[in-house]
Amino acid sequence: MLNFISLTNSLCIFSCFLLNRFIEGLIPMDKCPLPHEYPLHPGNHVDNSLDLWSRTDVQTCTYWGAPIIWDGMFDPEYYDDFYRKQNITVALTVFAVGRYLDLYLEKFLTSAEQHFMFGQRVIYYVFTDSPEKVPKIKMAAFRTLLTFRVEKYSRWQDVSMLRMKMISDIIDSHVRHHAQYIFCLDVDQTFVGRFGTEALGDMVALLHSFYYRRPKFFYTYDQNPKSTAYIKTGDMYYHAAVFGGTWQRVKNLTQICYDGIMQDKMNHVEALWHDESHLNKYFLLYKPTKLLSPEYCWAEYIGYRSDIHVHRLVWAEKNYKFVRQ
């Protein structure tokens, strides 16, 4: 009898979850407030080629003039050709500590070789506690992988938060000398479609797939006034699984977030969603110049959404209890 009741309760919870996700998908998004044919940048900037009005079903720009990248807004060949002529290099940082390395890193890297900045110069920076276990991946020309040993902390939250300092340090010691742009991604994701040069910008943030259609009062900002990550009300809710930009702007982001984290530690405070809470506070104060739609990091169990035409990066199946031991 107890097993039947437990099963019934589980089915009810799952049904409510699906219903809530369906209802969220019906909530209309804000619209781009810019006038038609309004240039995002002066001169012949590549982002001026974006068609902000090709997607009437979603928000394609912010009130501060940053584009939100959706399928159908850009010409991939135009972007790739533009940046190929610039002879750019893109750095990609990823942390694979403990069981995250065993479960996710190989698929992350092999899928990145198929879809991340395809045809461009890329340097992968893999931070791990076991460099000897990093898989050997066949890479295209002008794409390399470097490994860096990091400490395995007893709490996964510490790894999550201290990555801000490690990224800041590697920008100083290496990235600034070898790459113009840098992206920082979580390892428990898989590339399944183009994640290309259209994503490049000075300061790039990602709309969280859970929140992009929710009313703002549902955003889970840190509500503790004692934390440096405290936000009463904000513009968007950003996902820390993907952020990037020029190395100069990402250096500033990671340093300020790390300083906030350390100040919280001194005050015996820990932000609600750790580095993600600090990231949201940073983007509230220093607006991103480009936003990526949830296509660029989608959770497939959300289900069908008519506005999600393609999946570019998807969350891997999670077993937090296992991988965070």
pLDDT averaged over residues: 90
Biggest sheet descriptor:
8 strands, mixed
Unreliable residue runs: 9-17
| Bulk shape | globular
Q: How many strands?
A: 10
Helical percentage: 25-40%
Q: Structural class of the secondary structure composition?
A: alpha/beta
Distance, first to last CA:
33 Å
Number of helices in the DSSP assignment: 7
Binding site for an alpha-L-fucosyl-(1->2)-beta-D-galactosyl derivative: 208, 220, 276
Protein name: A3LT2 galactosyltransferase
Family: Belongs to the glycosyltransferase 6 family.
Binding site for UDP-N-acetyl-alpha-D-galactosamine: 95-97, 100, 186-188
How are the secondary structure elements laid out?
Blueprint lengths: L1 H25 L41 E2 L6 H11 L2 E7 L3 H17 L5 E8 L14 E7 L6 H23 L2 E6 L2 E3 L11 E4 L35 E5 H20 L8 H11 L4 E3 L20 E3 L4 H4 L2
Parallel strand pairs: 1-9, 2-3, 2-5, 3-4, 7-9
Antiparallel strand pairs: 5-8, 6-10, 7-8
Helix pairs in contact: 4-5, 5-6
Give structural notes:
- The structure is a single chain.
- The protein has 325 residues and is α/β, with parallel strands linked by helices.
- Helices cover 34% and strands 15% of the residues.
- It is built from seven helices and ten strands.
- The chain has helices at residues 2-26, 76-86, 99-115, 156-178, 247-266, 275-285, 320-323; strands at 68-69, 89-95, 121-128, 143-149, 181-186, 189-191, 203-206, 242-246, 290-292, 313-315.
- The strands form two sheets. Strands 1-9-7-8-5-2-3-4 form an eight-stranded mixed β-sheet, with helices on one face.
- Helix 3 links the parallel strand 2 and strand 3 (121-128).
- Helix 5 (247-266) packs across helix 6.
- One of its GO terms (biological process) is carbohydrate metabolic process.
- UDP-N-acetyl-alpha-D-galactosamine binds at residues 95-97, 100, 186-188.
- Keywords: Glycosyltransferase, Manganese, Membrane, Metal-binding, Signal, Signal-anchor, Transferase, Transmembrane, Transmembrane helix.
- The active site is at residue 276.
- An alpha-L-fucosyl-(1->2)-beta-D-galactosyl derivative binds at residues 208, 220, 276.
